[in-house]
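Example 3.2
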Amino acid sequence: MPQKYTNNLIHERSPYLLQHAHNPVHWEGWNQAVLQRAKTEQKLILISIGYAACHWCHVMEHECFEDVEVAETMNTHFVNIKVDREERPDIDHIYMDALQIMTGSGGWPLNILALPDGRPFWGATFVKKQEWIQVLNQLQDLYEKNPEKVIGYAENMAHGLKEINAIATNNNTDFITTSEIREMVSNWSNYFDTFLGGYKRAPKFMMPVNLNFLLHYSHSQEDTTSDEYVETTLTRMAWGGIFDHVGGGFSRYAVDTKWHVPHFEKMLYDNGLLISLYAKAYAVTKNELYKNVVQGSISFIKEELLDKNNGFYSSLDADSLTTTGKLEEGAFYVWEKKQLQNILQEDYTVFCDYFNINSYGYWEDKNYVLIRDGEASEIAEKHSITENELLKIISACLTLLKDERETRDKPRLDDKILTSWNGLAIKGLTDAYRYLGNEEYLELALNNANFILTNLLTQNGGLFHNHKDGKSSIPAFLEDYAAIIDGFLGLYEATFDEKWLTKSVQFTNHVIDNFTDTSTGLFFFTSNNGEVLIRKTLEVADNVIPSSNSIMAHNLLKLSKYYPEENFGIRLNQIMKTMRKTITENPQNHANWLHLSLLMNQDFYEVAIVGKNYHSLCETLMKNYLPNVIFAASKSDTKDVPLLANRQVKNKTLVYVCKQGTCQLPVEETNQALDFIKTKF
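Structure, written as tokens:
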């Protein structure tokens, strides 16, 4: 069917940008030619940033950008640029900071008006049609009649953008202590919802970085309050509608306090991080629920996001078509009571109690979102069956629902492959392999890592950020290197193939050479040789995804243990001293840094295993939750990994437990090695 309108986004590869290619708005992609045209014509720039799975981005497109009246206003007065925030997180960082300075909050769609040179002066998220037209006309009129006022505001904003990204330091160069961490956690805990998990507010984001830190903190400090909070949160998330009980995997966030109704978009990054978190939680608790979440989430990314060449796609949209052909949020995932009764027949009654097909599980328009609110044993007792019998019934019901769901129109897929998010998936899969022991998970991780090395390497030894339709593009950002190094370090400990350790060192040295901010020791988000934007960003705050700098700092800690003769430890120490004030002033937004501070306060162990039976000994040891331990292993001595040099003893497989270069006498039994670690020699 021929399209009435086509703009220059038709030449882009991003699914999000292509969704807007037939808007009447004269959209352009972000490129130097368009930016130069704005300067030449002295036109204001309208920058609209979103992503393919964003529900409100679609709503605004339909209400505003598909409208001819809106398009006429936009086309007459502005150079209109559409940005996929996942393709260009560097641009998104800057303009999201601008929006937060202006309004105190953020979100997508992110709409910015900027001077011809790109400096912002106005911003908003979702805006309705008439208000959008009115605001655009008013701002254009102001720029024509009083340009000095607009320029002055943009100058102040440019200054504010640099200020908000500055790292505050003080004269205290000591590392954060354990007692300081305890005090920070105690103050932070006032915000915890101890009944339903997460924070005492809605919407609720899962924040795996916070929970990963608190899991380690509660375990190492024997803090039962934090431990109970983590388990409550993990359980309630796993029970909630935010987890897809039929097909596995998590949505981005819940709009309510009980983790019930999500916005239904499913992202690779959330699931990579949560697979890792739940695998660790399973190692600590042996709770089968957490194991099931890991298995279900991996099934989801394998079935729905895996490319034929072993890259992982980015996301599934929140919206899909109903049976009447209407695009609606959650249509693929929700159920009417009559549908469930017809599909499940005599098992409906049990299913109804298990997943609350009642007022607790009701959403809107006759639709229910599956949610649990109690232990399986309680439901089994109510129906006078065993727990095993109950779980068999529920499993059979979910299989029937999955088959039924496959007949529905599927949510749209964003099939670009992002290096950073694939790195998070690799790390999740290696943790799942480590703690659950499923070889398939390791195979998925290895195939994905080899896909990255085959398709996303640049000629100078760096990485690309994006892969789509067989082509790689956009020089990698710090987030890409940080996540890939973390994933490859996980692969080394899963396989003990030195290739992954070597690649981790190579990419780390590339980051040091190309991303270093010499004044702080931190790393810029973009390469020092990259495109010049209105600000160089230092990403340090941990959000849903840990910040690229905090992941790199964790990488430096591990590499400093593998290669103590290198300068990785010195760099890490400088970074931690730089970050001290920032972390202590706002710990809840720097949880991955708190985690690193905790690790640096603990005894940290290096375990080397050498001999022909190294694999089985490693497997036994590494099933334990040991966040303050790194492992190195091989059949024989190797000088390439200092930990493994001069360790071999004929006809024996020995375990060496070391701390800061001092090793205990080697042992042959894993229990003895664990005792060394637990007694903190």
